[in-house]
Amino acid sequence: MRILVTGGLGFIGSHLVRRLLREPGIVVENLDSLTYAGNPANLADVESNPRYCWHRVSVTDDRAVDAVFQRGRFDAVMHLAAESHVDRSIEGGRIFVETNVLGTQILLEAARRYQVGRFLQVSTDEVYGSLGPEGFFTEESPLQPNSPYSASKAAGDLLVLAAYRTYGQDVVVTRCSNNYGPYQFPEKVIPLWITNGLEGKPWPIYGDGEHIRDWIYVEDHVEGLWLALTRGRAGEVYNFGSRNQKTNREVAEALMALLNLPSSVLVPVADRLGHDRRYAIDPTKAERELGFRPQYQWADALKKTVEWYQTHRDWWMAIKSGAYREFYQRHYGSLGQELDDH
Ligand code: NAD
Ligand code: TYD
After folding, report:
1. How far is CA 160 from CA 11, 122, 169, 172, 205, in A?
2. Cα–Cα distance measured from residue 94 to residue 104, given in angstroms and rounded to the nearest whole number
3. pTM of the entire structure?
4. Which of 248, 320, 329, 335 to mutate to test the pocket of ligand 2 (most atoms within 8 A of CB)?
5. How many CA atoms lie less than 13 Å away from 227 in the CB half-sphere?
6. Domains along the chain?
7. What is the pLDDT of residues 230-242, one digit of tens each?
């Protein structure tokens, strides 16, 4: 089986590529333009695998995408490449529309042109918007995205589902809750707090800190993607989550305990604009139809994650001392400056 993974040099994509290569006989081609969020170091361990290669191509580049498909003769596409950070999308949504909407359409068309067997769209629970104190997102929940990021992902999902209805293209859409684990870019809250903790810097917490996210370990998500690819029904949506809701304050407390830090490390900062209050996934459909069963427990997997950042300082120091600093200072304002002067 020949699979094109897009965004394979990012956080989830790199775990997926590694997981796919464990299946005998699978060939993985990775299409990734290497934005600020991509990092070849994430896949250094598979670089020389003869069943793996990387094309430095943008999903928005029609011609280059066409050439990759023409040569690749893929059986499946697993589409993860995206602009993925909500706070960046609040600063400016254009690149989110280009990558997440136009890029998805270009890939879908190429997959049709070259008769690729299946197109898996890797999406997010954020397309459903925000929940009140009760209830869960199911696959039937209305799409009510609140950020430019989630709106662009929702638009991509709709194009994918429309291709099924219009052309009978074999597509599957997955929507997962918040991931955590090794190789996550340290602009996302868990690696940001862990690495700030390791550097002796404070932890910015937005607003009252009572926002809820439903956390899943990245390897459980990636296993779900494999199940959706191999067992999912065409034209269907599958939600993935671990039934693991936590307030941001609870996440911070768990990390403080693991890192042996006092609660004074938390510094309240201005709330995110349009900040979604609560996400919670009902994964019943994926459990029933795909046999999806998360294997990792929050306490163990969070500890494992902390240990990974403790033992991979070079990986995140290189990122935090590079171009990421600019965004950090701009975004966190005087706190960013203070952190940088630290
Ligand atoms: P990430 O930001 O870590 O990685 C994105 C990757 O896509 C990078 O390697 C980047 O170089 C690449 N990329 C960006 N623009 C590109 C372009 N124009 N052409 C080719 N490559 C491009 O993202 P992630 O957290 O690994 O998320 C991967 C996917 O999973 C995204 O589609 C995201 O919406 C979805 N998702 C993420 C989460 C989460 O918690 N991180 C949860 C649910 C769904
Ligand atoms: P994030 O990791 O950006 O994921 P998402 O917005 O996609 O859920 O943020 C997770 C939660 O943590 C979200 O409620 C915003 C909050 N947060 C902070 O409190 N401080 C921070 O510095 C960041 C980046 C996020």
Report:
1. 23, 11, 9, 8, 35
2. 15
3. 0.97
4. 248
5. 21
6. 2-179+215-240 (3.40.50.720), 184-213+246-275+298-335 (3.90.25.10)
7. 999 999 999 999 9
